[in-house]
Amino acid sequence: MSRTKKLTVSAAVTALCVICMAGSALLPRVSLSLAALAGIFPAITVIACGYGWAAGAFLAASLLALLLLPDKTAAVWFLCFFGHYPIWKALIEGLQARSGKPVLCRCLKILGFSACMALLYLAFHTLFSNAIPLDVSSIPAGPSVLIAGLLAAFLVYDYAFSIFIGFFRAKVLPKLR
């Protein structure tokens, strides 16, 4: 694929990500779902153009969403997890294809997800601990249930994401080339 086509795909993906996240201004209750949906588009750039172009599209979409959108919730979720997840998912699955160790790669994905969520929690807690007291430790088994629920949701998202990537590679990518 030529550099012009790669630039076009990256720009289109960036625009689709921002448009998808802009929906959170109209539907604020589904901003997390819209961020997850916007996170699918960088996978197209990874597959069609490579990691560098995908990283550029992710950064551009993150900055544009943070600067332009009135509701920053989807943009923060996209920046903290959903936007860069397709890039490191592809890297880890490439490692899995070379090494043949799916359990190790699943553990790496869970570790990456856990690191992103821990950083997001620490940033949120540091910035807003006085305004919004969030203490899940006062709930019996609160942190355990929260962590288990987040990991279960992540594993479902990862599985659905893999199905989408397989569909894209089989049905859509041959028509793009």
Give the total of domains: 1
CATH architecture: Orthogonal Bundle
Helical amount among residues, as a percent range? over 70%
Query: How many β-strands, per DSSP?
Result: 0
CA(first)-CA(last) distance: 8 Å
Strand content: under 5%
Mean pLDDT: 88
The stretches of 5 or more residues where confidence is low (pLDDT under 50) are: none
Per CATH, the class reads: Mainly Alpha
Write up what this structure looks like.
There is one protein chain. Helix content is 82%, strand content 0%. The mean pLDDT is 88. The chain is mostly helical and 177 residues long. The chain has helices at residues 3-26, 31-38, 41-48, 51-68, 73-82, 85-99, 102-128, 142-176. Helix 4 (51-68) runs antiparallel to helix 5. It has a single domain (3-176), classed as Arp2/3 complex 21 kDa subunit ARPC3.
Question: Quick summary of this structure?
Answer:
This protein has 177 residues and is mostly helical. The chain has helices spanning 3-26, 31-38, 41-48, 51-68, 73-82, 85-99, 102-128, 142-176.
List the helices and strands and how they pair.
Layout: H1 3-26, H2 31-38, H3 41-48, H4 51-68, H5 73-82, H6 85-99, H7 102-128, H8 142-176
Helix pairs in contact: 1-2, 1-3, 1-4, 1-5, 2-5, 3-4, 3-8, 4-5, 6-7
Keywords:
mainly alpha, 0% strand, 177 residues, globular, 82% helix, Arp2/3 complex 21 kDa subunit ARPC3
